[in-house]
Model the fold of this input.
Amino acid sequence: MFVKSLIAKFARVPLVTIVALGLATSFASADPARGQKLYLKFMKDATGIKGDAFSAQHTIEEWKKLCENGGADLIKEYSEKYPNAAEFLKGEQFKKFQPDICDFVIHYAKDSGNVPSC
Done:
């Protein structure tokens, strides 16, 4: 009886750990689909280009570099390139949505082989 109880107790620990790690990972990661929706809502009209053309402006590595440090280089480059997008890019909303938008452009970069539907 004691052995069964002990085995049952230790069997729960890995299961709880796996579920907890799965939830933590899903909350911590950015989402390219959400980033695509955010691009359409906040940036498409300001840039005047569709998401596929926007994300195809750089390679995966170039986008990763632009997205470092809270997207500081992305903000600088695209505020100059698309002045109508500057207010959004320099604002609080972009800070909040930057991980998702960056995940979108990285996922659909010109060398990714992926094509967005926007």
Observations:
- The chain has two domains: 1-30, 31-118.
- The CA atoms of residues 46 and 85 lie 5 Å apart.
